[in-house]
Amino acid sequence: MTRTVRAEFDERTVTVYQAYRPEIADPALRAGTFVAPFKRDRMTWIKPSLLWMMYRCGFGTKPDQERVLAVRLWREGFEWALAHSCASSFDPRRYRDHEHWRAHLAESPVRVQWDPERDAAMRPTERRAIQVGLGGDAVRRYVDEWIVSVHDRTELAGELHRHHRDGDHEAMRRLLPVEREYPLPERIRTVIGGD
Which of 108, 119, 147, 150 is 20 to 30 A from residue 156's alpha carbon, by CA? Predict the structure, then answer.
């Protein structure tokens, strides 16, 4: 399985996705960042892959995940999160033993995990998609410093869902953003266990 970060990005920003209930999404859209009732003391997971987000939230049909948001971040913030991350489960390629991993887990404000990426038919592929969990100081940085803008992608999720139900995967592909391999410094690729 290939582990590369793929995302929609430009020279300064990268787009990630989250899904929330309307009570959290609507204030975030108005404020341009996350505000109450969003809870800063809980880990929040961001996903650069739109298709993986669609799989995770059931195209916005799962309870408390009805609103799909595209969040544009400064690339510096995204890379800070990856550089300060720890795998959410033990990976012998990155940690010498469970004790070393647990110590790193306890001090890191960020978790990463790799899950099978989805294709337009929502089947798992040989590629892995990264999820990034932000906790502690990383949540504060995310909300107060890294977010450039928040956009509602709920309507897009609904269109993708309709095409998926109809089996029209080509129509789905046409609606998807262009997600390319994100250029990571070697040291960050090593931290996240990327290829």
Answer: 147
Q: Is residue 1 part of a domain?
A: no
Count of CB atoms within 10 A of residue 37's CB?
10
Residue 66 lies inside a defined structural domain of this protein = yes
Tens of pLDDT, residues 155-180: 999 999 999 999 999 999 999 999 99
Q: Given the DSSP bridges, would you call strands 13-20 and 44-46 parallel, antiparallel or unpaired? A: unpaired
CB-CB contact of 159 with 173 (8 Å): no
Rounded-to-integer distance, Cα 165 and Cα 181, Å? 28
**First-last CA distance in the chain:** 9
The residue ranges of DSSP E strands in 51-169, in sequence order, are: 67-74, 85-87, 110-118, 124-134, 147-152
Amino acid type, 120: A
Q: Which of 16, 82, 26 is nearest to 52 (CA)?
A: 16
Domain interval for residue 123: 6-192
pLDDT at 103: 83
Tell me whether residue 119 is exposed, middle or buried, using C-beta atoms within 10 angstroms of its C-beta: 0 to 12, 13 to 18, 19 or more.
middle
What letter would DSSP give residue 121?
T
Instruction: Report the number of distinct structural domains present in the chain.
Output: 1
Reply yes or no on whether the pLDDT at 94 is more than 80.
no
Whether this model's pTM surpasses 0.90: yes
33 located within any domain = yes
